Structures are given as C-alpha cells and as structure tokens.
Automatic annotation (TrEMBL), chain A:
InterPro entries: FIBP
Organism: Heterocephalus glaber (Naked mole rat)
GO molecular function: fibroblast growth factor binding
Protein name (database record): Acidic fibroblast growth factor intracellular-binding protein isoform X1
Name of the gene: Fibp
A Gene Ontology cellular-component term: nucleus
One of the Pfam families matching this protein, by short name: FIBP
GO biological process, one term: platelet aggregation
Domain of life: Eukaryota
UniProtKB/TrEMBL annotation, chain B:
Alphabetical list of InterPro entries matching this protein: C2_C2CD5 (IPR037785), C2_dom (IPR000008), C2_domain_sf (IPR035892), C2CD5 (IPR038983), C2CD5_C (IPR057815), C2CD5_YbjQ-like_dom (IPR056430), C2CD5_YbjQ-rel_dom (IPR056431)
Lineage: Eukaryota, Metazoa, Chordata, Craniata, Vertebrata
Entry's Gene Ontology BP terms: insulin receptor signaling pathway; intracellular protein transmembrane transport; positive regulation of D-glucose transmembrane transport; positive regulation of protein targeting to membrane; positive regulation of vesicle fusion; protein localization to plasma membrane
An example Gene Ontology molecular-function term: calcium ion binding
Keywords associated with the record: Calcium, Cell membrane, Cell projection, Cytoplasm, Cytoplasmic vesicle, Lipid-binding, Membrane, Metal-binding, Protein transport, Transport
Protein name: C2 domain-containing protein 5
Length: 381, 1042
C-alpha cells in the first residue's frame, strides 16, 4: 500500500514555522523529517513517522508554491490563492529574505553575477550551508539589487517598499546592495575578523554621507538636479577629496595639525608617545621605509592618502583593506585602547578647523565624519 | 423580457506574460451573455491593464438570467495570428435576482484557465435591473431563495415548511461527443464547464417554479449533484425542501410574499383545534401504554433485483388515540405530497415529534444512453421508485415523514448504484400547513413535549414492530417507551439531553467482486449489497457499544462501486442520550469452549474490550447520573438491576412484565468468534485509536457536550489516494488497507491541526471513490473549531444537572407549565429579562468566571421552577449558537453601523487588499452572527494538465487546484459583499491521472451559502449605539470588505 497522492489544503494556509525554517535551510524532505524526528516531536504529539513525512511534504509543497510569490512580496499580499493572515505573511517574507552571516560575508562586495553563482558550491562546502539555501540567499541579493539598482530615492525605503521587509532587514539589504554596487573588497584575510554588521554599519554611514542621495538632501544644494541615488558614491566628492592632500603635502600645515592634536591630547592618551611618533613620518626620512618591523605608519598620511586615491575605482574597492592597513593595524600593533582611538580621531578631525590655511573644511568633515565612524567600528579584535 | 444586465470591466492585474519578446501582454476582454458578446479595447503592453470600460448592457429574459452564467474571457491581442485566451471567469448572477440578497457583484475575480489554472485577476462590476412581470405563465422563478444550509437559515423564520422538491436534467457529456476528438482539451473542458453551469441554472429555475407552485418562497437544504455517466450522458439533479420563510429583521413582513393574506386568514382558525387536541392527548394516560419500537432501524433494499426490506408498511395503524390523531392530522398535511421528505437535518423547536430510525434504499441500475435530453424519464422513474421505497419503509416504522433525507449515486462504467437514505420521523403538523399563526401557540407546543427526550420515543406500534427490539421506558420522562439504540441521519436536536461528549464513529468495509459485464455485473453487485449493509451495520453497532454510547446522529453510509470491489464507509456521531438505556457491553464467545488456551485467549480479548469500553467512557465523560455506580464496575449491566430500577418508577405491573420479557433478548451484544474473519473483526474494533487529548471529532453540525466555541475556525480538504498491491488481494487485506488509510488520514489531521488544541473537528465528511482498479481515493472536508476548555467543563456540569433535574421533575409540573406560559402571551420574546441576562453573560465570554457565575445563578432559579429553566436553557443555547430567535434588538443594527463596524474590524489586514473570507461546512460561524444571506454559491471547475511532473506530480497538481477552487469561491463571495461561506460542501472531486502520458484531470464541484457575518462582541456595541435604527435593505456597495 503506497500513498499515490496525499494532500491537505486549508482555507487559511497552514504554516509551520519549524518546517519553514528547515525548508529555507535547504533540507530535503527526508532530511527535514529526520531533523523533526530528532527534535522529539513524535513523542510530544504521539504521531508516527509516516504522519510526519506526509506533513512535511505538504508544507514543502505549499512553500514551493509560495516561493514564486515571495520573489515579489507585494504579490503575496494581493494574491487570492492563499489566504494567509497578515502577520504570517510578514513572517514568511522576513524569513525568506533573512540570510546567514557566514554566507553574506562570502558574497559581500562581490559582483552578483553568474560567475559568483558558480562559486556557490565552494561557499556551501566552506560554510556548511546547503547549496539550496546558498542559492536562495544569493538570488535574493541579486533580485533586490536588480530592483533597486536604478531607483531614485532612499535605498532603504525602496527596499522596504518593494520587498516589504522590516526596517532592520531593509538596512542590511541596503548595505549588501551598496557593497555589491561598489564592489568593496571584503574577502581578504586581513578583513576576515570583521563581521557583516561592521560592514553594514560603514555602508550606512557612507550611504548617508558619501552618495549622490546624500548630496541631494544636503542643505548646501537644495535644488540639485542630480540623480537622487543612494547606490553610487558621489563622484564629484571623490574628485574633491584630492584637495585634502594638502594636509600632508604642506609640511607647515602638517606640523601645525600635529601640534594641535598633541597639545590637546597630552596626558589624556595612554599611548601618547606612539601617537606622537606615528602622526607623521620622520622629518626627512623616506616615507614608509623605516627599518623597524612592523613599520609604524604615518596615521595622518595614511588617512589622507586613502581619501586622495578614492577617485580610482580600484582604490574604492580596496577602501577597507587600506583602512585596515593604514590605520587599524598600526594602532592595534601599538595596543591602542579603543577609547584612545576615539579621542585621537575626534581631536584629529576637529583640529583641522583651527588650521587657518586649510580651505576645505566642509569636505574634510564630510570625509572624516564618516571615516571616523567607520574606523571606530572597525577597530576591534 | 424583464431584465437588464449591466457589466463593467474595470481592470486586470498580475496577468501572465503572453508576449515573450516584450515580457508584456496586450489584453482585452470579451463579455458574453447568452448569444450577445461585447468587447473592451485592447490595453497595450501591460500586465495590469486599466480598461475602465463602458457599461455593457444585455437585455434578456429572466429565464435566461437564471439559466445562463455571465462569461468573461480575457484574451491577448495578436495582430497576425489568432488571439490567445488567457482565461475565463464565469459569474452566476442568480444572487442578484432576489431582492434581499446582493444588489451588486463587484470585485477581483481570479482569471481561470482549465489548463494553466489561475492566471491573474480581473475587476468586474455586475448589476441587474429587474422589471416586474405579471405573466402568469412565466417560466422563470426569480425571487425564490436557495440555501444549501440544511436548517432554517439563521436570520429567517419558517412560516411553513412545504416539503420535498426535486428535479433532474440530462444532457450529453461534451467530453464524449464526437467533436471532442478534434477539439483541444481546453475547448472540451470549457464546453463542459459551460454546459454544467447552464444545466444547474436551468435546474435551479425549474425547482424554483415548483416552489412557487407550492406557494413557498425558498428552498432550504438544496443539494445539487452531478452524475458523470460517461458515454450515457450527464445528469444534474437536485433535491431540497420548499419553505415559506420570513425574514426576522422586518417585523412588517409577517406574511410570506407569495401567499395571499386572505387565504391565510381563512385557514388559520382550522389549525387551532387540532393543536389543542394534540396537546391534551399527549397527556392522557393511554398514550403512555402505546409505545412501540424499532432498533435495527435499517432497511436494505436493492429494488431492481432483490428486495430484502421489511414489512409492507401496514404497521402502526393500531396506535392509541393520540397517535391516530396525530397521524391523521399530519397525514392530511402530507397527503397531497407525493414524498413527505425533508432534506433538513436540524429543525425549528417543536417540529420533530418522534424519530423512528434510519431508512435507506439502494438500487443497482445499468446505464443506457440518454436518447432524448428533454425527457429524462428513465432517470426520473429510477429515483421515483427509490423514493417510493423509502416512503414505505418510513410507514413501516409508523412514521409519515422522512427527515435528513439525501440521495447519492456511485457509478462505475455502465453500472450505477442509486442510494437514498433518511430518518423516518413523526412531525408536528403545525409547520406543514398553510396559514399557521405563530405566537404563543408555538410556545405551548414546544413545552407540550417532554423537552430533550420526546424525539426518542418510539413512533411505531409496540405490538407490531418491524424488527425484534428491546424497549424500555424513557430514562428521562419515564412515561413512554424508547428503543435501546437510535440511529438517525439528522443532527442532534439542540434540546436533546446528552451525557458526556460525542465522537466520530466509522464503519469501513471492502468486498472484492469479480470483474463482469453489464447484467452479470449488476447482479453480482446487488447480491453483495445486503451483506455489506449488514456488516456495516454490525460494525457501527459494535463500535458504538465500544464507545459506551447509545445513539448515532448524522449517519451517512456510502457504498462505492469499482471495477473489482465494493467499498462501504459509514460515518456518524456517537452520542449517549440520557433518555435511552445504558448500552450493554460486548461479549465474546468462542466456538470450542473446551480448549483451555483458546479460552484464555478469548478471556484476554474480553478483558481488552471491557477495558476499552471503560476507557472510552472516561474519555467521553459518559457517566449517566442515575445508574452511574452500577455502570462503572461492570460494563455489562445486569438485567436485574435495570428492571428493579424500572419497577420502582412504573405504575402498572403489566408493563414490567413486558419489559422483563424483552430482557431475554437484551443481553450484551455477543460476538461469536468462530473463524478468523470474526477474529479480524474484533481486532479491527480495537485498532481504532481515539483522537489525541484535546481533540474531538464529529460529523454533525455541533459536537454534543461542547458549546462554547471560540472564534478560530479552519476549514480544510484533504485527499489521499492509495495504490493497492494487486497481488493476492483478499477481503481482509483490503479491509486492513482501507482501515489504515482512514485512520492514518485522521491521524494526519490531528497532527496538522495540533496548534488549535483544544479543538473539535466538526462536520467531518469522508467521501470514497475508486478511480481505477487498484486505487482508492478518500476525500475529507471538515472544519476545526477551537473551544474554551474551562467553559466546556462548565457546560458539562450544567448538562448533568439538567438531566438530574429532569429526572426528578414531577410530571404534574410539566403539565401545568405550558398552560401558564401561553397565558403569559409574550409571543416573540417570552423571557426578555432572562435573555438580557444571558446576552450580557455571553458578552463576557472572555472571562470564564463571569460565565460561571451566571450559570450558577440560573441553576438556583431552576430549583424553584424547573420547566421554566428548560425553556430558558433552550433559549440560551440558541443564543449561544447565534440563532435568530431572541435577538431582535441586534437585528436592528443599521446598515451604516454595520459598514462602520466592518471597517473597524479591518485593521489587522489593513496593509493587505484582500479581505478574509471564512469557509465552513457548518451552518453557523462560532462567535458570530449571520446578518444576511447573499445567495447560493455553486461552482464547477475542471483542471487538466499535460505536464504533470512539472507541476509537482499528482499531489502538486491537486494541491494547487484545490487551493485555486478555494480562492475562486472566496473571490465570488467577496464580490457579492460577503465575508463567509457557510454550509460549504465539496460534492465532487473526480481525479483521473495518466502518469505515463504525464497527464491528469480533475473535476471539482463545490457549493455553499454566501453570507455576511458580524462578530457577536461587535454586535453588542452596535445595538447599544443604535437601538432603534430601522432595518432597510442594505446597500451592499458599502459593505464590501476590500
């Protein structure tokens, strides 16, 4: 006796959260049944394995039918085939678009193309996430990316509107889209210690301050005709950043800046001497060629150089690598406590306002304001 | 002549991509009614076209309005080749044809294609302007209301229940026409859908005409079925109960619209004397002596070939004066009716006087081609024959009417089994005659019968019983005789005194049959039928006793015929009726008493059975108050004890002797184990697993012993098909497979719905079919309803109290109260204070403590005046069930308030544009009140696929199809302005597959009543806000929950 056909259809579509999770995690029906058996559900309910099998199949079939609608969540709200209470609809969508930290770290900043999709096998092996789940997550990223890529207006709002995600998840997707679009390198070994949350934090700051959308809302340029876009960095701004170079190129300015910072921080920093030593390179020595290993970088030069290079796409991609190499690593090797880093960065950005010869105060604030936030977030073990 | 149909096509959405190049669609719409077609403009390059068309107007006869469906076809425009069809929407405009129902149909309808399923949605507005037609010879029956509900609909009152109406239309099945060989499957499916739609329209119109002839204005318990006879044609048949209904909310419309007032005035005085006479004879001592009975109230018959029925119907003529009078009276009322049948399963209080038992008849027929569709005489004659037989069975049981009547067929190739069954009953003539004046008369009659046990009293002649049976005096009133077991096809009367809870009881049976042709086949089947009936009956009896119960309600026996087997499935709800005696246990007897080990085995089995009975009694809380001590110890009560008990109650010694005689036969049910078959039977008895704790199940409307439903409901359909291994099929293996199939299915349901615990599966409806040689298909539709556990305990307590009180009630009190009551003369609302009291209690339903307090309160009230309480309790129950009787203030809610309220209830789905539509096979919605019936929903769909694997195999295909059917039902209800379907039923689900060709086809037929309901808690708010608002015909436009 075999079950040829076995279905259950409710007027209100039944959704079992546990089974949904198993389905999202990409388990096959038999794996899902095995996992459910292990969860002790049979003992709790007195059901048999056959019942569980039939139940799991039913749910899987339902989810499979719902998947098409989940690809465009507003459709799920308007469709007539499945009667699902709104709270359940929200849960279905939110869970479908949720992603694994391990997975997103692998894909973040990569081009969401077929090429990357081919690598999903390796990612699956590496992370232990099933290939099916990897595909779903990847396709979600790509789908969201495609929809909002060319859209005007706030990136987060667009995502929220077209995918009906929660605020938090929308922000995360905004970061993913932003990273994918600018192709920031996040996979280098040096960057492995950083979590998705760290990057998402930085992405949000950059979206708020460095993109075209940010300009559009800026009071300085209210009638701007430029595209109100959150996805692309403001090219003009990147171009302007070259002007900051004067801070390290003009020796007087550099010395003045250093003394301002040192005066303000004297006695407040536990790593004052290191700071002082690192602020700029030996007066006459060739840059970056100090005999000591690890080479203590010139912090200020590093930060300004990062700014100056951002006009090149390649350097934009390496932004995080540069930040780690030029700032985080030197500080870390000197064992700066986080609080000292904060004090230093605050003072470092603020003192520029007292430099009489420096004309790019606004530019500096737009750059440093964001970078300070990012660096503080990135500065951890 | 008299009708203008207006249609406007507003917009489409989510259309499929029809042009691969642009990923868009150039859609336009054809609107067709009868032979007239209109077209909209082509809306270029959009998946969400906004046609916003003009009003398309069709001027048509009302006859056509009733028969024809409105057909809307969405197409993709193609300049160079033929336009591609996207899909269709059929809209039944019948609900717009009667004044009280919907006034407009407006909303989003799924666009359905028989090959691709639902493909987007279309927004349509439909209106009808009807002109009055005074033509006497008209063929239309506009204005007759149809209800699937098998009880008087909640916001109506039955003025007269006229009786049985039936009609049948036949046609050639397009699927079997020669043209089908050259047309596409889509064209063929659409031809079929359209034909069936037309035929059901015609059928409904014809039934309507019959109702008008009978001077009724509505059909209740309307059941329409299709017989797909294959080569020989397509039969659409319907039965129902014609009534004259009166809408409760409109106090002016006291008289039915179709009856002339003068006639009523003339006839009404005639009604009084007999009613009074009826009351007085009831109390006469002679009456008590004239009982009679029936227990195996089952009549089997295969009229064409063999007849194994019972007496010729001469029984029961010798009844006492009361009975004679009652019979005379009702017979006169029923005489002019060819068939005194009623498709109702629940009745107005006082309608049902006595219940005889189940009557059924089956007939095996060979199908032949229907030559002339306009004269479906053969089929008519077949049914007439069966009905005649049912009628004579009922007569043999001393009954003049059959209630809970239904008909069904099972077809396999050219053999067809026609079945009819119902419950023989004696009815109160009051509802059956024209011109009855309602009022205090009703109250009097109600009280006249012993509440809660009257229907159990035997209607037939004790000395001339159709079956050997055991009679006892009613355990409730001690006055009249009752059978030891009662089987019925109706719902449990609301006033019945029940102990404990009920449960679903099923008998399942398979019989192998040799493959044969034509007459040989029919003979083989009809030879098997009586044995199957007998075995099904035995199984039901055994299982009932095993549950420790003594009555079955909602009994439905389905016999399905296949190529090489017959299947029997009987479902019913077992109940312990306080009026009937405690059932005896089951005793096992071996064939070789000398064999020691065998004996041991037998006694082991016996012990197991006794344990099961004891366990079941505990599970279903069956502890009848009177003789509880005796029962607990031994499941088989000794005859002595019972007779002693009876003697103390009875006045005449003659009767006791009579009873003692019957005790000879009354011993516990004995199962003789004389072969392996019998052993199997006993085993299978014990394999039925009770539902997990927190679950109850029944196949009736309401679960006896639970009446504090909370509002969560989940209707579902589950389908299972198993393939039997064809090797060495034996009856036993078959039985086991079938039994496992049903049990596993139930287990799956319990598991799936576990989050709703505590809950009850109500109206569990199993349908078996045998689509192919080795396939068995079981389809289940039911509704799970949650209930409040704490309150459940409370009601049980009151129930027990109630029966205790009743037992101790002095008879004289019972006699006097009715008189007092009618002198009170408070016709519509005899107990306003009590009513308010109860209403306020139910408003606090969230707080069990408040509820408990009120019931305590009224049981003390009951001590002083025990027959008052019966009445109040009766009312209380009706209130709880959302019935209409006592809540007139609530009815007066203005349409504005109703509309407002609906908006207020919307917030949970505020961000979704799709309103929730509830579906339930029950006639009510727990915790809510039905304020309006919008019309009948009767839909027929065909779905076919040639890419079965791609659609997820058979399961994926059917799962999607059923979900789509639900969606289309909901969409139609929403477009009518409703928010629920009640009395929903899936009448047919015919599934055929051909996996080798990667094909499958399925036909589904569903029906129900579209309604507007309002939550009870919200109603109170409205009624306090607007207590005096008048009830006008509501404007549906404002009501649509979108």
């Amino acid at each position: 006796m075999t079950n040829e056909l076995d279905i259950f259809v409710g007027n209100t579509t039944l959704i079992d959260e546990d089974v949904y999770r198993l389905w999202l995690d990409g388990y096959s029906v038999s794996d899902a049944v095995a996992r459910r058996v292990r969860s002790g559900i049979l003992e709790q309910t007195g059901a048999t394995a056959a019942v569980l099998q039939s139940d799991t199949m039913d749910h899987y079939r339902t989810f499979h039918m719902l998947e098409r609608l989940l690809h465009a969540p507003p459709k799920l709200l308007h469709q007539l085939i499945f009667q699902i209470p709104p709270s359940r609809q929200a849960l279905l969508i939110e869970r479908y678009y949720a992603f694994d930290e391990a997975f997103v770290r692998e894909v973040l900043g990569k081009k969401l193309s077929k090429g990357t999709k081919k690598d999903l096998d390796d990612i699956s092996t590496k992370t232990g996430i099933t290939l099916k789940s990897c595909r779903r997550q990847f396709d979600n990223f790509k789908r969201v990316f495609k929809v909002v890529e060319e859209m005007r207006g706030s990136l987060v709002d667009n995502i929220q509107q077209h995918f009906l995600l929660s605020d938090r998840l929308s922000r995360d997707y905004a970061a993913i889209v932003f990273f994918a679009n600018n192709r920031f390198e996040t996979g280098k070994k040096k960057l492995q210690y950083l979590s998705f949350g760290d990057f998402a934090f930085c992405a949000e700051l950059m979206i708020q301050n460095w993109t075209l959308g940010a300009v559009g809302e800026a009071p300085t340029n209210p009638d701007s005709q430029v595209d109100d876009m959150d996805v692309d960095l403001d090219k003009e701004f990147l171009q302007d950043l070259k002007e900051l170079k004067v801070l390290v190129a003009d020796k007087d300015l550099l010395d003045l800046h250093k003394s301002l910072v040192c005066t303000a921080l004297r006695g407040k920093l536990s790593v004052f001497s290191e700071m002082e030593a690192n602020f700029k390179p030996p007066a006459s020595g060739a840059e970056d060629r100090t005999p000591r290993i690890p080479a203590p970088q010139n912090l200020s030069r590093g930060l300004v150089n990062v700014a100056a290079k951002l006009i090149h796409n390649k350097d934009v991609r390496d932004l995080f690598v540069d930040l780690i190499e030029k700032f985080v690593e030197p500080c870390r090797s000197d064992h700066w406590p986080l609080n000292d880093v904060r004090l230093f960065l605050n003072q470092y950005s603020a003192s520029v306002h007292s430099l009489d010869g420096f004309r790019h105060q606004t530019l500096w604030d737009r750059y440093m304001g964001t970078l300070r936030g990012c660096l503080l977030r990135l500065y951890h073990d | 002549m008299p009708g203008k149909l207006k249609v406007k096509i507003v917009a489409g959405r989510h259309l499929p991509v029809m042009d691969r190049a642009s990923d868009l669609t150039d859609a336009f719409v054809e609107v067709k009614f009868g032979n007239t077609t209109f077209k909209t403009d082509v809306y270029l390059k959009s998946l969400n076209p906004q046609w916003n068309s003009e009003w398309f107007k069709f001027e048509v006869d009302d006859e056509d309005l009733q028969d024809e469906p409105l057909q809307i076809t969405v197409l993709d425009h193609d300049t160079y080749s033929a336009n591609d069809a996207i899909g269709k929407v059929y809209i039944d405009i019948d609900p717009l044809l009667y004044s009280e129902a919907a006034t407009v149909i407006s909303g989003w309808f799924p666009i359905y294609d028989t090959i691709h399923g639902i493909r987007g949605e279309i927004n349509v507005i439909v209106k009808v302007d009807l002109f009055n037609d005074l033509n006497r010879f008209r063929q239309s029956s506009c204005g007759v209301k149809f209800f699937c509900t098998t009880s008087i609909p909640k916001c109506y009152r039955a003025v007269i229940i006229h009786g049985f109406v039936e009609e049948l239309v036949v046609n050639e099945d397009p699927e079997y026409q020669w043209i089908d060989r050259i047309r596409t499957p889509r064209a063929s499916n659409e031809a079929r859908q359209r034909l069936i739609s037309l035929m059901s329209g015609e059928l409904q119109r014809k039934i309507g005409l019959k109702v008008l002839e009978m001077r009724g204005n509505a059909v209740v318990g309307y059941l329409q079925c299709f017989d797909l006879e294959g080569e020989s044609g397509l039969v659409v048949r319907a039965i129902g109960t014609a009534c004259t209904l009166d809408k409760l909310s409109s106090p002016a419309a006291f008289l039915p619209a179709c009856n002339s007032p003068s006639k009523e005035m003339k006839e009404s005085p005639l009604v009084h004397p007999p009613s009074l006479g009826c009351r007085s004879t009831q109390n006469s001592p002679i009456h008590t002596a004239t009982g009679s009975r029936l227990t195996q109230n089952f009549s089997v018959s295969v009229p064409t070939l063999i007849y194994t029925g019972m007496g010729s119907g001469s029984a029961g003529k010798e009844g006492g004066p009361f009975k004679a009078l009652l019979r005379q009276q009702t017979q006169s009322a029923l005489e002019q009716r060819e068939f005194p049948f009623f498709t109702l399963t629940a009745f107005p209080p006082g309608f049902l006087v006595h219940v005889g038992g189940v009557v059924s008849a089956r007939s095996v027929k060979l199908l032949d081609r229907i030559h002339n569709p306009d004269e479906p005489e053969t089929r008519d004659a077949w049914w007439a024959e069966i009905r005649q037989e049912i009628k004579s069975h009922a007569k043999a049981l001393g009954c003049h009417a059959v209630v809970g009547y239904s008909e069904s067929t099972s077809i396999c190739e050219e053999v067809c089994i026609l079945s009819a069954s119902g419950t023989a009953a004696v009815l109160n003539p009051r509802f059956l005659q024209d011109g009855t004046v309602e009022g205090c008369l009703e109250q009097r009659l109600e009280e006249n019968l012993p509440v809660g046990c009257g229907f159990c009293h035997i209607p037939y002649d004790e000395l001339n019983m159709p079956f050997p049976a055991h009679l006892t005096y009613c355990y409730n009133c001690r006055k009249q005789k009752v059978p030891d077991v009662l089987f019925t096809t109706i719902d449990l009367p609301t006033d019945a005194a029940v102990v404990g809870k009920g449960c679903l009881i099923q008998a399942r049976l398979c019989r192998l049959k040799k493959k044969a042709q034509a007459e040989a086949n029919a003979t083989a089947i009809s030879n098997l039928l009586p044995f199957m009936e007998y075995e099904v009956h035995t199984q039901l009896m055994n299982k009932l006793k095993l549950k420790g119960m003594n009555a079955l309600f909602g009994l439905r026996i389905q016999i399905t015929v296949g190529e090489n087997m017959l299947m029997g499935l009987a479902s019913a709800t077992g109940v312990y009726l306080a009026a009937l005696p405690t059932p005896g246990g089951i005793q096992i007897a071996g064939k070789t008493p000398n064999d020691g080990s065998y004996e041991q085995h037998i006694s082991h089995m016996q012990k197991k059975i006794n344990d099961t009975i004891a366990k079941n009694k505990e599970l279903y809380e069956i502890n009848p108050p009177e003789i509880s001590e005796e029962v607990i110890g031994s499941p088989i009560p000794e005859p002595r004890q019972r007779s002693r008990l009876l003697r103390s109650q009875s006045e005449s010694s003659d009767e006791v002797i009579e009873l003692d005689l019957s005790h000879g036969k009354k011993d516990a049910f004995v199962l003789e184990i004389d072969d392996t078959d019998a052993m199997e039977d006993v085993h299978s008895l014990l394999t039925d697993v009770p539902p997990p704790s927190g679950f109850y199940s029944c196949n009736t409307e309401i679960m006896p012993g639970i009446n504090n439903w909370t509002s969560e409901i989940q209707m579902f359909t589950s389908v299972r098909v198993i393939r039997l291994s064809s090797l060495n099929l034996t009856n036993q293996a078959l039985n086991k497979n079938f039994n496992d199939l049903c049990e596993n299915l139930l287990k799956s349901l319990y598991f799936k719905l576990r989050s709703m615990i505590p809950c009850c599966l109500c109206h569990v409806n199993f349908t078996v079919s045998l689509p192919e040689d080795e396939l068995i298909q079981v389809t289940v539709t039911a509704v799970a309803i949650t209930f409040d556990k704490n309150q459940a305990l409370q009601t049980i307590k009151t129930h027990v109290e109630k029966s205790l009180q009743r037992a101790s009630t002095d008879n004289e009190e019972l006699l006097q109260f009715p008189l007092e009551l009618c002198s009170d003369s408070l016709p519509p609302h005899p107990f306003p204070p009590a009513k308010e009291h109860l209403e306020s209690a139910s408003s606090n339903s969230g707080i069990p403590a408040a509820q408990r307090a009120t019931s305590v309160d009224y049981s003390s009230f009951a001590d002083r005046c025990s027959s008052w309480i019966e009445l109040i309790k009766l009312k209380a129950q009706t209130i709880r069930r959302g019935s209409i009787k006592t809540t007139v203030t609530v009815e007066k809610a203005s349409p504005v308030a109703e509309g407002n309220f609906r908006n207020r209830s919307a917030p949970p789905c505020a961000n979704s544009t799709v309103g929730v539509v509830k579906m339930t096979p029950l006639s009510f919605i727990p915790g809510a009140k039905i304020t309006k019936y919008l019309g009948i929903i009767n839909m027929f769909f065909i779905r076919e696929t040639t890419s079965l694997r791609e659609e997820g195999g058979v399961s994926g295909f059917l799962h999607a199809f059923i979900a789509e059917v639900f969606a289309m039902v909901r969409a139609h209800v929403a477009a009518l302005g409703g928010n629920a379907v009640v009395s929903y039923i899936m009448k047919q689900c015919v599934f055929m597959e051909n996996p080798n060709k990667n094909q499958a086809q399925c036909l589904i037929n569903v029906s129900g009543d579209a309604v507007v309901f309002v939550r009870e808690s919200d109603l109170e708010v409205i009624s306090t806000q607007q207590p005096t608002a008048n009830c006008q015909p509501l404007c549906t436009g404002g009501e649509v929950t979108t």
